[in-house]
Amino acid sequence: MKTKVLIILIILIGLGVGGFLIWKNITAPEEQKTEEERAGKETESLPVDEKELVEIFKMPVTESSHFGFMHPQHSYPEAQNINVHWERPHPGPFIWDELQKDNGEYSWSFSDNYIKKSQGFNFNIIATIWPFADWDQKSCHSLEVCRGYGFEGLPPGPPDKLPIYRCKPCDMAAYSNFVKNLVERYDGDGLNDMPGLIYPIKYWEVLNEPEIQTKELTFFNGTPDEYFQILKITYNAVKAADPEAKVLHAGMAGTLKESLDFWKPVFAQGAGNYFDIASIHSIDADNEDFFAKEMEDFLKDYNLTKLIWITEAQYGKGGGGSYDKEDFAKLLIKSFTSAFANGVEKIFYVGLSAPTPGHPDAALIIQWGQKNPIYYSFKTLVEKIDYFESVERLAENQYKFTIVGKPVYVLWGVGTIPSEIAGLVKITDIKGDEREIDALLIALTDSPIFVETK
Prior knowledge:
The chain is α/β, with parallel strands linked by helices. It folds into 3 domains: about 1-55, no CATH class; about 55-385, Alpha-Beta Barrel (TIM Barrel); about 400-454, no CATH class. It is built from 16 helices and 14 strands. The chain has helices at about 1-15, 20-25, 35-40, 50-60, 75-80, 95-100, 110-120, 135, 145, 170-185, 225-240, 255-270, 290-300, 315-320, 325-340, 375-385, and strands spanning about 65-70, 85-90, 125-130, 205-210, 245-250, 275-285, 305-315, 345-350, 390-395, 400-405, 405-410, 425-430, 435-440, 450-454. The strands form 2 sheets. The chain has an 8-stranded parallel sheet, covered by helices on one side. The longest helix has 18 residues, at about 225-240. It is elongated. The relative contact order is 0.08. The model is unreliable at about 1-60 (pLDDT under 50).
């Protein structure tokens, strides 16, 4: 059936039918696909040339996209509607205990199944590596000391669970071999790859928020020195398997003192030699740019210049207890814009669909598919500035993004508009409504607008 469809498509191309019709035929609505097709299994048996043709039309995103969601697996179609195609599964399926039940053979079905579903919706993945296997932990640790909390296999179940014991691996050589085999399976080099792999995984994050060690939530039981050892071993193993891959250190839980007290010793040992991209989180914090400037300053303290990704971003009661739904819609555009202007390359938003760890009005989608105002401001932001090549702060609350050589201005607040904006312009508000007016008539308010010149 797929071969016939491809033949028809080739004929249509020869007749000059537009790419839109080709795209529509290749990617039928999800409700018309079988579960196997949605999981991406249809590519496994295709000849190489046909598979390449499918990939050409199935990949609407490149690595230069600046937007992603954390664990969107329950709302992939909605994420597609917003045209976001990056995801950070959390915890995700890349767990040593799940993929190697003892120090022997690997079983990849847990991670393969997740990836097949993800790539069936055209998503690229940043993968979090969890260096925990209960069989390994038991070989050298007092297990009560290593007891972790949170994501322990409660509903909805895999991949939202982690092993119970979460100390540094006992057998670091075995762990290193696991990482090499894991990266090799998903690097897309044609050697020992997952059958049907379409989007290789090129970004690997080493654990998550290791500084959080409480009775409510503990991702890692260990010292800064032990995390440094894990980071170093993981980085070397990733690069040995795929020199082109990029490594992120574990997402830092903000830049407050409690977090930095853990991370300063890690960086003092030379952590900068063992990651390519810095990872920071902003959950339930009153911070206008998701800690972007603070993270840049922290890196400078160690003479480091690195790309910065905000791998968790969400608004909560701590930073927006007095905000209403409309306020969150405005805040999203302001904070994303400010973060990008402060050098952030990608931002992964946590609140695609409720429930989320943040304020319920900061979730894009709530019960029964109902959309909050922030949904439309997010969609508008992606439409207007994604794939930007540069961003410049012109004045307070005035920013200029350049996309394919053309400027898009994001403005709010008070004062006059930049002098370079003149003549008839297109104005888009946070809801996505557009109009054309003379630039002289623009009046700035607290609600951001997008301005495009003719």
